[in-house]
Amino acid sequence: MAKRKTSEKKTTEKCSTNSVNLFEILTPPGQIPFHEYEMAEVIPLVNSPEISSGTPSGSGPINASGKCSETLPEKYSGSFSESSTKTPEKISEQPSKSPGKKLPISKPLENQNFSLDSFDSTDSFEKIKADALTCTGCSLCKTRTNVVMGEGSDHALLVFIGEAPGEDEDLSGRPFVGKAGKHLDKILAAAGISREEVFICNILKDRPPDNRTPTIEEMQACTPFLRRQLNLLKPRLIGLLGNTAIKFVIGPKTPGVTTIHGQWFDSIFGIPCMPLYHPSYLLRNASRAQGSPNWQMWQDIQELKKRYDEIKTSK
């Protein structure tokens, strides 16, 4: 046991920045196992094996029946549970310091239908929430307690996107306030990122029953609200929390987070994004040894913070 403690001390010294105790920050209280957890298998993005293809229409307005008229581009047709070893195209250079500059990528993206350039300039966060409250685009409007739109700075350069609200979020109307949210707060604080300076939200604005994985129909219904939020925020970077957000924002055949975490990719919104572990996954995989998910998350969040600081400095 003494030998293990010595090893733990060395790992902590390597991974700490500015005297931050990585073991303390990235491990839930009472969960300090010495053995390694196996990596969980990649969860399929949706329950339905096939979806229809289509092209988004403008900003995806809600029609007279209260349903969203936006459909997904062709890249989302087919099976979301289909396994693929092909990694999506990575950005060949790191995010540009120049506002609005087109980022070079290794190959052209398949689709740019989620561009943020066609939105109403009179839109506002208040209007977006009002529309979400009256949306009946999926059945979640019947089971939710609160619509969870997101929170943070209205001028955030960095946005974190998860998959959907959980029970605590549904009850409070705020994103990432449960155990996973508190864990995310600790990670951000350790990296020197204030929750108030970024924007945190989910693809879905309503909680799926029993916290199940969102369906493509549900995400399709909520996508216009997320796009409108991003259009108002005009962020320079996106952090994708978990496999569902990763596969929706980068592409359905994207490998899981355990394969591509910490790398830069272009997104359906035309904004550079970095896949990250979802904080709930880190809570379930509490090992802090080098190479573990918590250790990897610490490396990734520091890389994200580095690019974020460069953009803030260049303004």
Give keywords:
alpha/beta; about 35% helix; disordered N terminus; Uracil-DNA Glycosylase, subunit E; about 325 residues
Kindly describe this structure:
Strands 1-3-2-4-5 form a five-stranded mixed beta sheet, with helices on both faces. Residues 1-86 and 92-113 have low confidence and may be disordered. It starts with a helix and ends with a helix. Helix 3 (125-134) runs antiparallel to helix 6. The longest helix is centred in the C-terminal third of the chain and has 22 residues, at 293-314. The chain has 315 residues and is α/β, with parallel strands linked by helices. It has a domain at 120-315: Uracil-DNA Glycosylase, subunit E, CATH 3.40.470.10. The chain contains ten helices and five strands. The chain is globular.
Per-chain topology:
Layout: H1 2-15, H2 22-26, H3 125-134, E1 151-152, E2 158-162, H4 167-172, H5 179-191, E3 199-202, H6 216-233, E4 237-241, H7 243-249, H8 257-260, E5 273-276, H9 279-284, H10 293-314
Parallel strand pairs: 2-3, 2-4, 4-5
Antiparallel strand pairs: 1-3
